[in-house]
Amino acid sequence: MPRNNQLLHFAFREDKQWKLQQIQDARNHVSQAIYLLANRDESYQFKTGAEVLKLMDAVMLQLTRARNRLTTPATLTLPEIAASGLTRMFAPALPSDLLVNVYINLNKLCLTVYQLHALQPNSTKNFRPAGGAVLHGPGAMFEWGSQRLEVSHVHKVECVIPWLNDALVYFTVSLQLCQQLKDKISVFSSYWSYRPF
Amino acid sequence: MAGNSLVLPIVLWGRKAPTHCISAVLLTDDGATIVTGCHDGQICLWDLSVELEVNPRALLFGHTASITCLSKACASSDKQYIVSASESGEMCLWDVNDGRCIEFTKLACTHTGIQFYQFSAGNQREGRLLCHGHYPEILVVDATSLEVLYSLVSKISPDWISSMSIIRSRRTQEDTVVALSVTGILKVWIVTSEISDMQDTEPIFEEESKPIYCQNCQSISFCAFTQRSLLVVCSKYWRVFDAGDYSLLCSGPSENGQTWTGGDFVSADKVIIWTEIGQSYIYKLPASCLPASDSFRSDVGKAVENLIPPVQHNLLDRKDKELLICPPVTRFFYGCREYLHKLLIQGDSSGRLNIWNISDTPDKQEGEEGPAVTMSVSLQEAFNKLSPCPAGIIDQLSVIPSSNEPLKVTASVYIPAHGRLVCGREDGSIVIVPATQTAIVQLLQGEHMLRRGWPPHRTLRGHRNKVTCLLYPHQVSARYDQRYLISGGVDFSVIIWDIFSGEMKHIFCVHGGEITQLLVPPENCSARVQHCICSVASDHSVGLLSLREKKCIMLASRHLFPIQVIKWRPSDDYLVVGCSDGSVYVWQMDTGALDRCVMGITAVEILNACDEAAPAAVDSLSHPAVNLKQAMTRRSLAALKNMAHHKLQTLATNLLASEASDKGNLPKYSHNSLMVQAIKTNLTDPDIHVLFFDVEALIIQLLTEEASRPNTALISPENLQKASGSSDKGSSFLTGKRAAVLFQQVKETIKENIKEHLLDDEEEDEETMRQRREEGDPEYRASKSKPLTLLEYNLTMDTAKLFMSCLHAWGLNEVLDEVCLDRLGMLKPHCTVSFGLLSRGGHMSLMLPGYNQPTCKLSHGRTEAGGKLPATEGVGKGTYGVSRAVTTQHLLSIISLANTLMSMTNATFIGDHMKKGPTRPPRPSTPDLSKARVSPPTSSNVVQGQIKQVAAPVVSARSDADRSGSDPASVPALHTCFLVNEGWSQLAAMHCVMLPDLLGLERFRPPLLEMLARRWQDRCLEVREAAQALLLAELRRIEQAGRKEAIDAWAPYLPQYMDHVISRKHTHTFLQSFAEKRT
Q1: Would you say B429 and B458 are in contact if contact means Cβ atoms under 8 Å apart?
Q2: Where is the sequence biased in composition, kind Polar residues (chain B) (predicted)?
Q3: Which residues of A touch B683 (CB under 8 A)?
Q4: Which residues of B are less than 8 Å from A179 in CB distance?
Q5: What value of ipTM does the predicted structure carry?
């Protein structure tokens, strides 16, 4: 990690766990979808189209949520990043002027490092705390404890993870399958409910 | 309350009950109300009597997605608050008594379970909601402000919490939260320790984390009887654990491979477990699970298979085996305090509630059938048993010979400028009907009941089957031809109609699926697109249909998923389509080329960027409730009125300069007192019509019409200036009103010329159209001669008539009822009118038909006040026993309107054009002829002023119940006029002071003092006067003791009188109420 032309090395602490929440959420959504589908007996006969539509709605909601967790990383404010458990996950501990955020965006694992410097209390700069964002730019300001801080440098590293790519493709395919089933059923049900006048 | 304006909804439900696929059930602590949430986001309140009679009372609108959980949110017994959470992360706090939304919020994450918990530190009690859901923590939320205070966090293997229970131990005075994560790890947090520092926002870590190997946990419950055991229900088995060390006591398998969905303790030794298909089993626990027995914990540590299997004791099953489209929701509720039933309540997808009373189940032999369903009722059954049937807005015009059911209305749009409602029906026909007239037919008794096909209407036929959507583009933007009405149907076609001639102008057949939505592009699009409308179809295609060129200029049809939202980037010539899976398609409108297709964070950013560019052009199609919410915010009556008001003021000042230029767009100011909004709870349902009455606008209109009678003295410019100058002394609102009046007067003279031309053109169209119709009814023809003209002379009076007739408490004073019917021309309602209540942020509660049907009164007297009335007697008597907020609004409305009508010359509703028979009504060029004919041509403004001045003392003097009628005698006015005014004055007096005595305190909920006080300085003079009179009357009624109580209740909120430091809660509520006052 370059800082003042010197390299710093950090490693994850051995004694603590930290989970990438996006993955856990996606997994839980998928397992809920699977539970909805596998819950029934294999010999179960669906009796109405409405029943299938209702089930498909529930399954698709979970699948969409799962995919969205991977495609749309959470927008966090800088104090939220500072308060997150990740900050305390490193050995040796992170210096106080560094913030780290790790998230997944589509098929990429992203690491952002924010280098901070404290704003002087009598600084002429207009203090305006930054809102939530996936990636904060240099110049974003926030208040942490009693201190006012400003981001001076942002470093971002991305790494493509092949299985994430596969997972996203499967999500898309499964959603399309569900939608096609729904569309077919609705065509039939509007045909059956046709009433001549 | 909904802003400052006094808006009252009246709802016409129609015969088909709204779809209510129940997703959550709750019984309130007093046992008097069952609350159900449904997959479409509505919440239904059901009254429950001691005899377990159930009657649906109200439907609450506000959530945009499926309700995930319900919980009580208040510990005190005098108010019943509940909190609801939806799939989209919304949380809402409701008052169960009247369906008011007290607070709402939205988080990014979904809650799947909420439990209420009361912290107490010393004498201070704070309500908290513990929420869990699609996130790894338990959030602790303030139960009054719905703010997240802090969270309960897991250190070890954090994961989503699937269920949670709060354990209160009397022995240790220590409350613990026991939760089970989705991976089967039991987590324990201690929550009592932190009451000392309630300000603290640091997360709390768990005390204990123990894997108990329970997969797919459905529910966890604590035995309130022994306080020693926990029941954990998983989808394939259920287990009882010792609550002390969480060791396994016994385990039961699933029956016949069914899936368990939950369970609870019925008594110390019995548990009830229910399945996904709605069956419930009662089991007797083995002795090793009972702390009272000697062999308690004798099996701990043994293998699961060796445990003594619990004995199946009873089976409860649904009575009727109708097909369900999703698993029913079952919950078990203990009695509490005064309410001793043990009830198993089940809600299913057909909107049915099944209730079993299992308090006194005698011991039966193993495997025997349990008690039958004690009570079973569905929304549709509640609708069906009503007589007369719940009215739909055009039921009288939709009778089909072969069936009892009227044709369903599947789409509707209201054209306020003409006061017309356009209804598309399931047979493909479109009916255009005057909204007030048809509502009067449905709600009120009168001679119109004898006439078939009343009110006069027009039918457009063209669609081959169901009409799915309607749009009147001129209402959205003046750039469209005001003749055009657009309709879309299931036959894939979009049709342009000319509403004046009834002609079909063009049929577009460009889509490959039924049309789901019709929209209007924003103002700043290219000239070509400006004359288009946008159609969305169920084949996931979007079309831009040019009304001018009569062709489709763009068809965007490659979307894989249903279209959820359409947004516009006019500056870049982009049409942005958001699909239900989160992908976004950007189309170039000019070329029809697909510019981009993105998803993920970029898609969200693109959609947000459109919002920033044009906040008004957002149109979400995802859900009817969203549409309703948007409609309510967008067409906010207050905003509309302010705008019109503002426009009028500027117009009046520039009047002489710009007389000629504004002939095309006469202000639609005079038609905003009534808005009709169609809502659907589910896309497959027929439309429900809600009539929104804006009291303030109605008062302004009445006064405007009163002042706008031809009065030559005032129309000269000199007088105009003099008048507007003199009115400066009044409040700004009054100035505006006066300006409006003057403007209207001047307008009348200008209109003479314009109208002549306009009407002559139309007359020819009328002629051809009339020939086409075989109808020979003279009345029909009579009405045909003036359809949809720019001015309707009786719209305001009709609106007032409908509204007053619905509000009046009939049957309390026979003499007054006679006066109302004969002299004032009001009409009795057929049955109880379903009112609604608007609350914050577009939340709305609508009373269901028959909300006051007899459900016997609860012994402890906390049920609906109107409950015990026999059905016939229940007709009328107003809605003054529903809740205090409703009473306040209704009384304010009726008194302020009665005062307004009293101040007018001979303002009677008699002289309805029903009586005119075949004579053609006067041309709108002499708009007030009819009224002038009925009333003697008097009314100089001086006389009016006198009446008005007299009216105020009448209001204040009324409290002495001494309405000798001597006050108005000072006006040397005409006899009829006097009689009518006296009628109005009596009406106002009855509602102002006599109602509590007439109804009796049992059935009368007094108005809320703070709501009245807030209107003490209302900008509308009439509302202000009514509020003041009501407040004084109420203060007098509650006598000294009550007044002292009120002062004591409010004193803490006045900081300057406080010696000690104000408690946080008080400051909070004070600030809240203060903020509400400000808004």
Answers
A1: no
A2: 936-946
A3: none
A4: 560-562, 581
A5: 0.90
Q: Do B601 and A71 touch (CB under 8 A)?
A: yes
A179·B561 Cβ contact <8 A: yes
Chain centroid, CA A40 distance in Å? 31
Among chain A residues, CA nearest to B601: A72
- Contact between chains at A64 and B581 (C-beta distance less than 8 A): yes
Rounded Cα distance, B784 and B773, in Å = 11
How would residue B195 be classed by pLDDT, with cut points 50, 70 and 90? Answer: low
The answer to whether the peptide bond before residue B562 is cis (omega within 30 degrees of 0) is: no
Spatial distance between the Cα atoms of B746 and B141, rounded to a whole number of angstroms: 59
Tell whether B597 is within 8 A of chain A (Cβ): no
Q: What is the pTM of this model?
A: 0.81
> Are B561 and A29 an interchain contact pair (Cβ–Cβ within 8 Å)?
no
| Count of other CB atoms within 10 angstroms of residue B2 | 20
- Is A67's Cβ below 8 Å from some Cβ in B? yes
Q: In angstroms, what CA-CA distances link B219 with A25, B171, B180, B602?
A: 20, 25, 9, 39
For residues B898 and B889, give the distance between their C-alpha atoms in angstroms, rounded to a whole number.
14
- Rounded mean pLDDT, B723-740: 40
Task: Report d(CA B910, CA B824) in Å as an integer.
Answer: 7
Q: In A, which residues are within 8 Å of B348 by CB distance? A: none
What is the architecture, at CATH level 2, of domain B214-318? Beta Barrel (2.40)
Question: Mean pLDDT over residues A155-179, rounded?
Answer: 94
Question: pLDDT (tens digit, 9 = 90+) per residue, B474-523?
Answer: 988 889 998 999 999 999 999 999 998 889 999 999 999 999 999 999 98
Alpha-carbon distance of B499 to B568, in angstroms, equals: 29
**Contact criterion met (CB < 8 Å) for B323 and A47:** yes
Contact B134 A65 (CB under 8 A): yes
Nearest CA to B419 out of B815, B793, B953 is that of B793
**Token pair 């397992």 is at which residue?**
A31
DSSP state of B757: H
Mean pLDDT in residue range B769-792: 39
**Residue numbers in B near A83 (CB within 8 A):** none
Task: Tell me which chain A residues have a C-beta less than 8 angstroms from the C-beta of B112.
Answer: none
Q: What does pLDDT average to over chain A?
A: 87
Q: What per-residue confidence (pLDDT) applies to A95? A: 85
Q: Which residues contact B771 (CB under 8 A, 6 or more apart)?
A: none
A73–B601 CB contact, under 8 Å: yes
Third-level CATH fold of B409-612+670-685: Methylamine Dehydrogenase; Chain H (2.130.10)
User: What is the bridge-based pairing of β-strands B260-267 and B270-275?
Assistant: antiparallel
Which two structure tokens, joined as six digits, stand for B235?
């989808």
Q: What is the overall mean pLDDT for chain B?
A: 74
B210 Cα distance to chain centroid: 46
A54 touches chain B (CB under 8 A): yes
Cβ of A51 within 8 Å of Cβ of B326? The answer is: yes
8 Å CB contact of A72 and B600: yes
How close, in Å, is residue A17 to chain B by CA atoms?
8
**Domain limits, chain B:** 1-16+689-706+794-853+878-907+973-1047, 137-211, 214-318, 409-612+670-685
Give the whole-number percent of chain A exceeding pLDDT 90: 41
Q: What is the 3-state secondary structure (H, E, C) of B990-1053?
A: HHHHHHHHHHCHHHCCCCCHHHHHHCCCCCCHHHHHHHHHHHHHHHHHHHHHHHHHHHHHHHHH
pLDDT, average across residues B814-833: 85
Taking the CA atoms of B762, B767, B768 and B769 in sequence, report the sign of the dihedral they define: positive
